[in-house]
Amino acid sequence: MEFTTGGRLEVRISPADVGKRVSVRRLNDPGGGPQKFTDTVGVLASWTGGVVRITRKTGEVVRIAENTLVAGKVIPSLPGARPGSPPARRRGPAADALEIDRIAARSWPPAERARLAPAGTDPDAGLASGSGWELRAAGGFTRRANSVFPLSDPGLPLDEALRRVRAWYAERGLPAYIHVSEGATAEQDALAGELARRGWTNEGTAEVWTSALAPLADRDPAPFPAGDTPTPSAHETGGAPGATEPRGELSRTLSDAWLARYQRFGTPAPESLAVLSGGPSVWFATVWAGQEAAAIGRCVVDGRWAGFAAVEVAPEHRRRGLATAVMAALSRAALAEGASAAYLQVEADNARAHALYDGLGFRPHHPYHYFRAPRDDAR
């Protein structure tokens, strides 16, 4: 915290700051005894009825009595920076959270979608319009493709919008999730607090990390072929993967070996294949060990952005630099298409992945949460 005992403590926030990131200090026991304080950093979700609600980066909602506040201020938002964290060693590409979220949503498209939006907006505009809520479903394959993306006002009172969301997912036999990013929009920041008040629970926190693309492409891509032009896979040319040394290949299509290495499902459903194959410009990387995939990865190029996902290495082939090689090869393909920035999404508690991506130059940009509807009948 930046409050100091030598300076004057002031509450410099008000209900007008709902949706902004703030830091506050409150008195634990106003009734007497030694004065003890608690500091809280997060998004000011609401300020009503004498109660201040702040959503922390973990998704936890902290309720603070207004009369216990002794200090408070707004924290300016900086891409790639977190309150209370040391300055990043290298700043990533300049972008706001909503820009990256929209790019990421296009790279992981659902099999089915619907939209809640204000009257008069194009019902088919979707992500391009930047308005409304997009409801996404893909047979339950990943929460990313089976959750609501709240871009802006849904055009309905919140309780009615939530009722329609729950009914839509119930018709498909799926739980209702809403994806809420911190710092994307003031509406999303406030939505987190409103969902918590209505009994929606945070069932998963992940983070978006970003990096410049060129340093990734400059890394040694071996065992992928050298050169500026990515080579098609053996499955496209009719050849057979080498049986001796590991050999890396890039492809525009999914192979059975790639799917066998991917750990998110057993037998892939059509909805899963649609998600994995969807996106503006999709690349798949495979490192072959005989007839099996020792390592895999996926990259989607969309304008200046290259989005990485599904980077996995077989346990017996770990600590050989294969994950780095996969990302280097995919980066070269994306760079050749004109991309200059990279992003990925990683679970907040995946320490092994954090270590890998930190070593590759990625830095945290913003967290996001999946709020799940109360477990009872949709209404």
Describe the structure in your own words.
It is built from 9 helices and 16 strands. Strand 12 and strand 13 form a beta hairpin. 41% of the residues are buried. The protein is α+β, with helices and mostly antiparallel strands and 379 residues long. The chain has helices spanning 97-107, 158-171, 186-197, 214-217, 234-237, 256-261, 270-277, 322-336, 351-359, and strands at 21-27, 37-48, 51-55, 61-65, 69-74, 112-116, 133-137, 148-150, 177-181, 201-212, 247-251, 282-289, 292-302, 305-313, 341-347, 363-372. The strands form 3 sheets. The chain has an 8-stranded mixed sheet with strand order 9-16-10-15-14-13-12-11, sandwiched between helices. It has 3 domains: 15-74, SH3 type barrels; 97-205, no CATH class; 214-339, 3-Layer(aba) Sandwich (Aminopeptidase). The two termini are 42 Å apart. Residues 245-379 form the N-acetyltransferase domain. Keywords: Transferase.
What's the SSE blueprint?
Elements: E1 21-27, E2 37-48, E3 51-55, E4 61-65, E5 69-74, H1 97-107, E6 112-116, E7 133-137, E8 148-150, H2 158-171, E9 177-181, H3 186-197, E10 201-212, H4 214-217, H5 234-237, E11 247-251, H6 256-261, H7 270-277, E12 282-289, E13 292-302, E14 305-313, H8 322-336, E15 341-347, H9 351-359, E16 363-372
Parallel strand pairs: 14-15
Antiparallel strand pairs: 1-2, 1-5, 2-3, 3-4, 6-7, 7-8, 9-16, 10-15, 10-16, 11-12, 12-13, 13-14
InterPro entries: Acyl_CoA_acyltransferase, GNAT_dom, Rv0428c-like_C, SH3_Rv0428c
Region (Disordered): 217-250
Organism: Streptomyces buecherae
